[in-house]
Every structure is written in structure tokens, then in C-alpha cells.
Amino acid sequence: MNQAGGAFPHVPNWARRFLSQNPADKTWICDTCGEITPFQFAQGWYARRRCACEQQAEERRQRQQVPRTLAEAIREAQMAQTYTWLGAGWTASELEAKTFSAFEPARQPEAFAEVRAFAFHPQGDLWLYGSYGVGKTHLLAALANLRRSAGRPCLFASAVTLFDAIQERIRNDQDYHLLLKQAIQTPLLLLDDIDKPKVSAFRQEISYQLIDGRTRRGLPLAISSNCSPAELDHYVGGAARSRLMMGVIPIPMNGRDYRFGAPSGGGGSLPAETV
Ligand SMILES: [Zn+2]
Prior knowledge:
Layout: H1 13-16, E1 19-20, E2 28-30, E3 34-36, E4 39-40, E5 46-47, H2 52-64, H3 70-79, H4 109-120, E6 125-129, H5 136-149, E7 155-158, H6 159-171, H7 177-185, E8 189-192, H8 201-217, E9 221-225, H9 233-236, H10 238-244, E10 248-252
Parallel strand pairs: 6-9, 6-10, 7-8, 8-9
Antiparallel strand pairs: 1-5, 2-3, 4-5
The protein binds zinc ion.
The site of zinc ion has 6 residues, from helix 2.
């Protein structure tokens, strides 16, 4: 007889804290399942038994805790960033509702078809240009949203907010290169209103780094402007423009004003606004 282990040497001491030799101590009542009788060990020790609803709850908990792979976790984080990557205060989450199905194709049949085709196989640079209110932002967002729904990360920004976010970082002595790196390396970058920021040598340089960096990596870019490709030099500089023209798919979007339902008065481009 093992004296140290007591009368029931097969049940280790640490386990006895969870057990009882009195079955009534380990019998309990579940509101749903009724009386739950204990689990009985060989040497007259009893353990509390789970009822069916406790077991189901435990299985649910375990399913939710299925460990994700690192790649899945990174992708999920990237997917969540599309409209929020510039940081708090620069989000454009209202664009999540602008899908292809929320766009009336009859308004811009050619642009609709081209952007949708690009959404399935983004290659080169897609360039939507035309006057205000023809649906450029909506189609760019629809492109981003279709990629996201397919599990493909992308980043969206209006050029004005991108430059504002960069300048805010410079003002606060923070490094803006991380933003630039994200913009250059994301699988698909969407830049709305690229001719809207005020023109400066610094912004032209940033534009060039962006476009050149993506072109060298063979990564697609989708942009919109009011000005035509011929007029873009003024806004992003000649170097960025010539880099951009290498693989561009230009899509003119003029005609009816999409926002107000009124004719936009032809295809003339408007001067860049200062914001
Ligand atoms: Zn139960």
C-alpha cells in the first residue's frame, strides 16, 4: 500500500482538488439539461461532468479561437486599411457603399465596362478624367471595393488628403516616408483628383516617387483627374507624367453631371482648386 498516496494511489494529489468522494458534491442541475450526474473514477472519486450546452459553448469558443496564419492576419489588416491608412481624421469610409451595382452603367457605359474589367485584372495605370460629377470617384471606389470583396488589399486616397496627411507628419516632426512606402508597395493604389492639390515642387517630387516606384515594381495604379492627360504636366510634373504615360489606359468621362443630373457643358477641364 502506498501510504503517501493514501487509499487511492491512482489519483494524483493535484487532481483531488477537482474531485470528491461524495457524488452529491459533483452533481448539479442545468436549467436546460436537468440533473447532471458526475463522472466516476475507478477508485471512488467523482468529477463534475459538463452538460450538452456547456460542451456546445466550449466548441463554439474553440472555433472562434482557431489560430490564423500570419499571412491571413496581415491580409486582414491590409483589407481594413483601404480607406483608413492615412490615419485618424483622414478616413473616407463612406466610399465603402460606392459599388459597381450602386452605379447606373447607362450614365457612363464605356467607363463602367473598362473600370470593371480592370477591377478583375488590374494591370498598368487606369486614368479616369473628365469634368466634375461624372462619377469618377464612385467608379474608383467601386474598383477598390470589388478588389476588397475578392480579398485583395488596396489603398484609396484623394490626392489632397494624401498630401495633407504627409504635410501633417512633416509639421509634427513625424516620418512621412512610411506613408509613401505604403502607397508605393500596396498591390493597388487608387488616387482620386490627382490635379486637385496645390502645385509645388515638393508635391511634384512626391508624385514622381509614387508613380516611378509603382511602375518599377509593375504595380497597377488607378487615378482620376479633371484635366486631360495632355494637361497633367502642370500638376504632377513632366517626369511623373511621362512615367505614367508608359502603361496608361486613359478613360474620358464627360457628359452629364452624375451628381446633379444636369448636363455638365462639354468636356472642358476645370482649373485645379486650391484646398
Ligand atoms: Zn445544459
